[in-house]
Amino acid sequence: MSLAFPHTAYEKEDQATIGSILKLLAYFDMFDHPISIEEIQSFIPQKIYRNKLILTLEKLVFDKLIFCYNGFYSLRNDECLSAKRIRANNLAEPMIGKANEMAKFFFRFPYVRGIGISGSLSKKVAAEDSDIDLFIITRSNRLWIARTLMFLFIKLFYLVKRPYWYCLNYFIDEEALQIEEKNVFTAIETMTLIPVCGNGTMDKFFNANSWITNYYHDYATVTNNHKTYSNKHWIKTLIEWSLNNRVGSWLDNYFFRLTKKRWNKMEGKGITNEKGQRFGMKADKHFSKPNPVFFQEKLLARYSNRLNELKAKLPDYFN
Prior knowledge:
Arc Repressor Mutant, subunit A; 49% helix; two-stranded antiparallel ribbon; Beta Polymerase, domain 2; 11 helices; 6-stranded mixed beta sheet
């Protein structure tokens, strides 16, 4: 229930905070995703005490600049969005358990140094047909050996059983820990990443991306000192020992060239996946990831248009 505040012209010191809240809600609105007060507190640039934030949100709700249902805030006056989020949270719980199990299994593969849960599941939301996205860090100059072995297993796994769609579409190695594209999308994706495996590797990754503090003051607090699974398997150690030489370097380069050539051909043909999405991957010696042209850049353009609409409607809250 909203408190009965009179409609007021907000003080200048509050306007920047209000602008940040509106920008944040506009971003998640693109995903039909209302957010909690805890998420708002983490994802705005300014540090703000909870009591002050509650007061500001209550004023905004009273003035119908934003809306709140079931503890979730949105720019849209639609209670169905909060109900949808609650269902998505409930669906995510068992999937996060499965993702943790699979991440620990994949950590046994040669040259894998860190694994985290990414995508929608990292925001603790899921649908019936959601993918389980895993973010993988490998040893330097052995990414393509690790990736090839993992994908061969995945292909075999799907022939036998497919209870969940495991998506291993984002790999970096220890020479590419800093995210190349620095924007609101990659900042939120990095900050919400759930670390599962790695003997200090995930902390190195978060430290390498300290640029995110320029977007969100709470970044260091949210991503600091995670406890991760780090047990090694003797087979992993043996395979790595046997490939820590010129043969291993040749194999890694070979798998890289082979995969990149195949992807370029698929992208040129405009091939789509099972969900009708355009295939597009970006390959480098030190990373393998979705091509930002096909989703990320389109999302950012859409977000920019949404912000322009808000600025035109509520100019007082935007610089």
